[in-house]
Specification:
two-stranded antiparallel ribbon, alpha+beta, about 20% helix, 7 strands, five-stranded antiparallel sheet
Length: about 100
């Protein structure tokens, strides 16, 4: 599965920087189909192939905003040799809707 499609790259360009947005829009969801890990990018730089977004790797105590690369997502191989996948059913969602699912009240 292709993690980034031309259409998705174009959408990242259209949205641009969200650093001043108090409720940034998650444009995609990447996940580990055999273990822990969800990546919700808000921005993508096609020159460096670096995303910025929300990452949930080890439960809510370690979730954080930060940068991650397309290369690290593509190179990861988990159980059964499966790599990171893109949720093809995910629709753009404001961060305020997703993040409460990954944090304690």
């Amino acid at each position: 599965m292709q993690l980034l499609t031309p259409k998705l790259i174009e959408r990242f360009k259209e949205v641009g920087s969200q650093e001043n947005n108090k409720d940034p829009l998650f444009l995609a969801k990447f996940f580990n189909p055999t273990g822990i890990g969800n990546w919700f990018p808000t921005e993508y730089d096609p020159t460096t192939e670096i995303f910025f977004g929300y990452v949930s790797l080890f439960g809510d105590y370690n979730d954080e905003w930060g940068s991650f690369s397309l290369e690290e997502l593509e190179l990861y191989k988990g159980q059964l040799g499966l790599g990171i996948k893109r949720d093809i059913h995910f629709q753009e969602t404001p961060s305020s809707i997703i993040i409460p699912q990954y944090t304690k009240s």
